[in-house]
């Protein structure tokens, strides 16, 4: 039985596990947990402070320990893998996928958290658009113990309209993982926040960007957007 109609003011979900995605544009009276935009800047070049800088080469990952145990799809995780291409994975993976897919999908990393999965890079200002002159993507991380949150920011990465296309934009966005011991939930799984300071979903020749989450077995997930839909 279907009751009512889903609109842009309603959350996405649930998926097969029970996750919902609430957006800042959802009806806050009906859904008090809908987030309010409150950017947390980490990059010291833009007034941020207290963060660890990871300079990541094109199509590269790094692995780091979390400051707390984070429960995701019912399983506890103490480490994450972060990729320059706008995603992170709970646990350790060898993948550094630049090719984004829909969610859920058999392709791509497991335990995926994708705030803006696309083929991101960083141009050398002296040689814009030249693949032979690329700078590392700036990814910053910070643990705010007093607020029980761990933040990952992709700062001023470059996204293109297509591979090596001269039409491009800067992308700055972040993921906030909340410590379940501080921010309790009904299941004990950790809450996740995506925030966007400036993004342009312009990659029209390569599936645009993917935003969403997916479980370890690629069977359950929430697709906020993929291929411009």
Fold and architecture overview:
By secondary structure, the protein is an all-beta fold. Helices cover 0% and strands 37% of the residues. It contains no helices and eleven strands. The chain has strands at 52-56, 61-72, 75-83, 87-90, 112-117, 137-144, 149-160, 168-178, 192-198, 210-214, 221-225. A six-stranded antiparallel β-sheet has the order 2-3-4-5-10-11, with no helix packed on it. Strand 6 (137-144) and strand 7 form a beta hairpin. The model has no long low-confidence stretch (mean pLDDT 94).
Fold topology:
Elements: E1 52-56, E2 61-72, E3 75-83, E4 87-90, E5 112-117, E6 137-144, E7 149-160, E8 168-178, E9 192-198, E10 210-214, E11 221-225
Antiparallel strand pairs: 1-6, 2-3, 3-4, 4-5, 5-10, 6-7, 7-8, 8-9, 10-11
Helical residues, percent: under 10%
- What's the rounded overall pLDDT mean? 94
From the N-terminal CA to the C-terminal CA, the straight-line distance is 26 Å
Cα Rg: 17 Å
Would you count the extended β strands for me? 11
Assembly level:
single chain
Reading the helices and strands in chain order gives: EEEEEEEEEEE
- Summed up, the helix count is 0
Strand arrangement within the widest β-sheet reads: 2-3-4-5-10-11
Largest sheet: 6 strands, antiparallel
Structural class: mainly beta
Which ranges are low-confidence, i.e. pLDDT below 50, for 5 or more consecutive residues? none
Strand content: 35-45%
Shape: globular
